[in-house]
Design a protein that fits this description.
single chain; 146 residues; alpha+beta; 4-stranded antiparallel β-sheet; 4 helices; 4 strands; 26% strand; disordered N terminus
Length: 146
């Protein structure tokens, strides 16, 4: 009986953690350079490459909630155009810059992390960036899809 209770507790914890991770339009409290760089890498490896928009929607601001369906539809179309129809699990090449560019937009802090990657059916590497901006509520959100 103790094992069944333990398993139930573990499954409950895992379900709670995954439910929290799936919350949309949440953003980040910790806007430190280290955290944003870590989130950028996690996004590029576990969301962008693997065609899983969960983290992307988590990082979007509430102000785009009315465009949720359109964004979700284009997510999958864009992925197929960029990487091809076959599922991919790793990059041939992924380089994330150690330099974080700090600026401001409309009085709010922004941070840009430059990167370069190649995967799937891409002929050559592509340069992009993770662009985060701080909102009025102090949280950090993706300002643009890499």
């Amino acid at each position: 009986m103790k094992n069944k209770t333990l398993i139930t507790a573990i499954v409950g914890c895992l379900f709670s953690a995954s439910a929290f991770a799936m919350e949309r339009f949440h953003g980040l409290e910790d806007g430190s350079d280290e955290n944003l760089k870590s989130v950028c890498k996690d996004y590029m490896v576990n969301s962008y490459l693997k065609n899983d928009p969960a983290l992307f929607f988590y990082l979007l601001p509430e102000s785009v909630k009315n465009m949720e369906d359109k964004i979700e539809k284009s997510w999958f179309e864009d992925h197929t155009k960029k990487f091809g129809d076959e599922p991919i699990t790793e990059y041939e090449f992924l380089e994330i810059s150690n330099n974080i560019e700090k600026d401001a937009y409309k009085g709010k802090a922004t941070k840009t992390i430059r990167l370069e990657f190649k995967a799937g059916e891409m002929d050559k590497s592509k340069r992009s960036f993770c662009y985060f901006k701080q909102s009025e509520n102090g949280r950090w959100y993706l300002g643009q899809k890499p």
